[in-house]
């Protein structure tokens, strides 16, 4: 039995690829393999270009200012990338669902995976649970998979940095008012 590969793992892969875009086809292939994707075809520079197109569209979803805009952008991605659901046992890895046509190159697979995964993540966890880090100088994208749904920082390092900054600002304003 396979669990849904289109949820949390897909948005985390999208965030990883958006935060550190792959330089070439070999790096894209390596990072997809590490993420657990089965590569059915050789990865080419066309896949890198298609992946960048998917990530550009996805970053607009991340940066959307309200839920309706976010939903409209995801729906546009779904319309472009997804196909009717189908059962598959490709690579002999066990039966599972795909929301894409068979025999697609990696760029198309990633576009579909990212769009469907993002839709499932936002619908299942909340429309606000995809964002950039709250630290002003950090532009890192992350999917909020926390239990409470209130993650504000991409990492503990940024959370600590912001806490120190707030503490120093509060200490400075307390001294100024004394």
List strands and helices in order, with pairings.
Elements lengths: L7 H12 L5 H10 L10 H19 L3 H15 L4 E3 L7 E3 L7 H20 L4 E3 L8 E3 L12 H22 L1
Antiparallel strand pairs: 1-2, 3-4
Helix pairs in contact: 1-5, 3-4, 3-5, 4-5
How does this model look, in words?
This protein has 178 residues and is mainly α. Helices cover 55% and strands 7% of the residues. The strands form two sheets. It has a two-stranded antiparallel sheet. Strands 3-4 form a two-stranded antiparallel sheet. β1 (86-88) and β2 form a beta hairpin. The longest helix is centred in the C-terminal third of the chain and has 22 residues, at 156-177. The protein is elongated, with a radius of gyration of 19 Å. It starts with 7 loop residues before the first helix and ends with a helix. 28% of the residues are buried. The mean pLDDT is 90.
């Amino acid at each position: 039995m396979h669990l849904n590969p289109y949820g949390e793992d897909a948005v985390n892969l999208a965030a990883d690829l958006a935060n550190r875009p792959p330089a070439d086809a070999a790096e894209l292939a390596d990072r997809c393999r590490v993420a657990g994707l089965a590569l059915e075809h050789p990865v080419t520079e066309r896949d890198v270009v298609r992946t960048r197109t998917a990530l550009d569209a996805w970053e607009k979803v991340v940066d959307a200012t309200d839920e309706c805009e976010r939903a409209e952008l995801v729906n546009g991605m779904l319309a472009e990338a997804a196909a009717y659901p189908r059962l598959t046992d490709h690579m002999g890895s066990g039966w599972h669902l795909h929301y894409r046509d068979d025999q697609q190159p990696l760029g198309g697979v990633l576009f579909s995976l990212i769009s469907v995964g993002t839709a499932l993540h936002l619908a299942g966890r909340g429309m606000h649970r995809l964002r950039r880090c709250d630290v002003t100088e950090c532009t890192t994208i992350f999917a909020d998979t926390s239990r409470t749904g209130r993650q504000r920082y991409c990492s503990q390092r940024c959370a600590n940095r912001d806490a120190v900054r707030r503490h120093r600002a509060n200490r400075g304003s307390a001294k100024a008012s004394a």
